[in-house]
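Problem 12. The chain below contains 160 residues. Write out its predicted structure in token notation.
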Amino acid sequence: MIKNNMTMILDEVDKTILRLLQADGRLSNVDLARRINLSPPATYARMKQLEKEGYIRKFTTLIDREKAGFDLLCFIHIALQMHQLEQVENFRQQMGLIPEVLECHHITGEYDYLLKVVLRNRKDLERFVVDRITPIKGIARIHTSLVLTEVKTTTELPID
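Solution.
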């Protein structure tokens, strides 16, 4: 790990740490140290530095959405009426308050935002669109796509 003008440059050990933790975030420090051939204190120091620099944002548990009762995975495109700062900020704030919205991306093209949303069933989808999204001021168009099959889902970045 080398610092270059306030930015940390990842070496091969750091990259290996990130790859291993992405694959199994529950690895103990001792197991991680063994896999990268460093002492546990040196490994811990590197992990803490990766956290401090923002490479590691947080540790979490991934839950199977279908087993948790969320049968529908939807992508919802949203177009705003006007691109005034107040409307944009209001929309972004509202998205942060809705737990069913897993991701919200500001995008280019015909629509302004792309939402990744989980819902229990089609009735939940109707309530979500009619009661949660439509009342938000400034929305011009809503286009919903239902996922039939998740072909690939991962949270692992291709660190090389």
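Discussion. The beta strands are 2-4, 7-9, 72-80, 101-106, 113-119, 139-146. Students who got a different answer should revisit the alignment rule from Section 12.3.
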